[in-house]
Structure formats: C-alpha cells, structure tokens
Amino acid sequence: MKNYSRAETIELVFSGTNYFQLLETIIEQCRTVLHLQTYIFETDTTGLRIIEALKHASKKGVKVYLLVDAFGSNSFSKKVSAELKACGIHFRKFSPLFSTENIYFGRRLHYKVVVADRRTALIGGINIADKYNESTKTDPWLDYAVLTKGSACEYLHGLCEKTFHKQKKNLLFNTESKTPVQNQEGSKLLRFRLNDFIKGSNEIHQGYKEALISATHNVTIIASYFLPGHGFRKLLANASARGVKIRIILAGQSDVYSVRLAGNYLYDFLLRNNIQLYEWTNSVLHGKAMLVDDQWATIGSYNLNFLSHYISVELNAEIRDKAFIRTFTDHLDNIINSSCNAVDLKNHARKINPFNKFLMWLAYIFFRTLMNLTVNRKRKRR
Q1: Which domain does 365 fall in, by range?
Q2: In whole angstroms, what is the distance from residue 316 CA to residue 112 CA?
Q3: Residues 289, 12: Cα–Cα separation, whole Å
Q4: What's the pTM?
Q5: At what angle do helices 78-86 and 45-59 cross, to 10 degrees?
Q6: 3 state SS of 333
Q7: From residue 145, how far is each of 15, 128, 278 by CA, in Å?
Q8: 87 and 55 Cβ atoms separated by less than 8 Å
C-alpha cells in the first residue's frame, strides 16, 4: 500500500482478554463477509471458542473464509476442519507440503489479520491460542494488534481474497487511495505494508529503514526473535551517534532459546553504541513494533530477523496518529519501569562466563550461516 489513508478508528489492542473479546465481537457483528488469516490456530480452549463464533456467523449467512498456515497450524484438528466445511465455512491451509504454493520451500503465511464487511480490521502479531489469552496460571504472551475501521480496510479484504483464492493478478492497487493524504493535526492516518521478499515485496523492511534514517529525537523498539542484519545494526548505531535516544525491549524469556542466545551476542555491540536495552520478564515476549519521534509507528507480524525479511509473508500497519502513539508510548514506558530489567554493559559482561559467550557466538554463527544460505537461494529464484 503506497499512500496513507484516513481511518475512522485506530486503536491499540493487547494480547489476552482485550484481543479475544474484541475478535469475538467483530465476528458476531459481521453481516456479509469475513476473512481470518493467521499463522497459528490451535484447537485448544481459545481456538475452539473462536471456531464456535465462526460457525455461528456462517449459520447467519455470513461468508466466512479461514486460512491458516500449514506449518504453524500443523496440529489443527482434522475433525474440526471437517466441521468447519460442513458449516459452510471456506477453509484451507496455506502451503501444505504437497502443493503448488510449496514450490517456494520455507515461505510461510506469518501475518495475522481479520477483516469484516470490508470496513473493520484487526491486524498484528497475535495468534489464536491459549498462550496469547488470559490464564489463571500464567500471563499471556506479550503482543499487540491494531483495530481500524474505514475504507482502508478494502485493501486488506483484497489481500485476503487474493491469498485465499491463490490469485496471481495483483488488484490491490485498485483498492488504494490514489491521492496522497495530507497529515493534518488530529488526523488518523495509516497504511498497510507487506513483506513477501520471494514475490518481490519489501515494504515493511524499507519502512523500518527509512524511519531510522529520518529519526531525530527518539526511537523505541519492542522485538521478539531479535536478530537484525549488519545493515540494520549500522542504521541503529548511526542514529545513536546523531543523538537519537534508542530504547529496545527484548525477551527476558523466549520460546526459541537458540534465537535468544544469538540475539544476546549482539548486546555488546548495541550497548557500546549507547543503545538502551531492557528485557521483559513477566511472560514470553512476542510483540514487534517500532515508534519514532512521537510521530510514527509500525506494528504487526514482522520480526527484525532474516526469516521475516527474506522468507515469510508479513503484514504491518504504519500509523501516523499522535493519540495512538501517545497511548503506545505510555504503555511501553510503563512496562519498562515496572516489568523489565535494564541491561547495562558492566552487568552484562559480569554475567557472561566464557562458556556462555561461546554458546552465544555459536548460536549467532549458526543463524548467520543459515541466513546467508537462505538469502542466496531465494535471490537465485527471483
């Protein structure tokens, strides 16, 4: 999506009850057509509740389309699949092992989006599973989404139609505003950005880079699976050298320990470049967003690593809305002050023994080698 559009609503949504109650409400209020596309859809308590909402919508006459990634949702029950189809729900898996989509091995549908009646949308990084929801035992994984309403949702409807039906012709441009919108005081502006490197789209990565290059005052990043390439790390260092205050909130606990180890290898570089690091400790961190100069934000499914950049299909919202950014900034300030451990160079060096340092280096080299092999392969295919 090239140009920003005015939105009727732009609201920050949090993982847990906030997200899943809102999702059920959107499904319940839908009248004509609904798309839900996601990477992980577990048929656990949370997933079955959403499935019942989808069935109810279909029985009311709503055209319901559900697309889940074949790898991320490999445990999706065959029994539930049959029930969905029996209820008239259009259901399929993205890129199963033996399919034409799987010609690009490793290309996964990683984004998470819901679009109702072409006018209401919910996009972000939150999958459908108990671990993203409230629990009496543990806090939900920390993640975010954006609720938006308005004509810009036509673009997301078109994207979902194109992806679900495997359409090759790109009609998304027809759903966009052809005239750039002026950023007036009080405007709620957003545009949706797609990353699908194999298919030639690199919008989210470019958005991150351009925002860092133009930053003048402050940057706050919250990042799971944080393993940026050399070029992005250089942009961070250059921005810090210009006097930009940079804060990065990272995972204090992770579901992929090897990625966390590799990310920890970069701490020394980041800290020596006067970048402030914080580790979220209350639960697994799964959020991915960046805020720049209290003016601009990007939020969605895109991780700052090579998988999101070069392999997966990702979707973010880029937002210019001071009220939204103020709300998000206040939230991040609060979790930094109340639920994060600050990482400084002295303490970081003290905690790391030679064996741990070797493990971090080994994990980093493994992922860098994997990245180089993957990227070279993908570039040859393009």
Answers
A1: 206-381
A2: 9
A3: 12
A4: 0.92
A5: 20
A6: helix
A7: 8, 13, 21
A8: yes
pLDDT at 30: 98
The predicted pLDDT at position 301 comes to 98
Residues 148 and 257 in one domain: no
Task: Find out whether 326 and 218 touch, Cβ atoms under 8 Å.
Answer: no
In the chain, % helix, strand, coil (3-state, to 5) comes to 40, 25, 35
Q: Does 98 reside within a domain?
A: yes
Report d(CA 105, CA 97) in Å as an integer. Answer: 9
pLDDT band at 98 (very low <50, low <70, confident <90, very high): low
Beta-bridge partner residues of 99? none
Helix (H, G, I), strand (E, B) or coil at 115: strand
Q: How far apart are CA 186 and CA 250, in angstroms?
A: 32
The amino acid at 98: F
Domain shared by 140 and 251, yes or no: no
The residue whose two tokens read 């052809």 is 178
Helices 354-381 + 257-264 axis angle, to 10:
100
In a 3-state reduction of DSSP, which class is residue 340? Answer: strand
Backbone angles phi and psi of 193, in degrees to 5: -125, 135
Closest alpha carbon to 155 in 20, 351, 318, 370:
318
Comparing C-alpha atoms, which of 159, 138, 104 is closest to residue 300?
Answer: 159
For residue 290, the cross-strand partners are 221, 298
Length reported for the chain: 382
Measured in degrees and rounded to the nearest 5, phi and psi for residue 91 equal -130, 135
Whether 15 and 141 have beta carbons less than 8 Å apart is answered as yes
pLDDT per residue over 185-233, tens digit each? 668 999 999 999 988 999 999 999 999 999 999 999 999 999 999 999 9
335 and 233, same domain (yes or no): yes
Structure tokens at 355: 């064996």
What's the rounded mean pLDDT across residues 97-122?
85
Nearest-angstrom CA–CA distance, 236 and 305: 14
- Integer Rg of the chain from CA: 20
Asked if residue 178 belongs to a domain, the reply is no
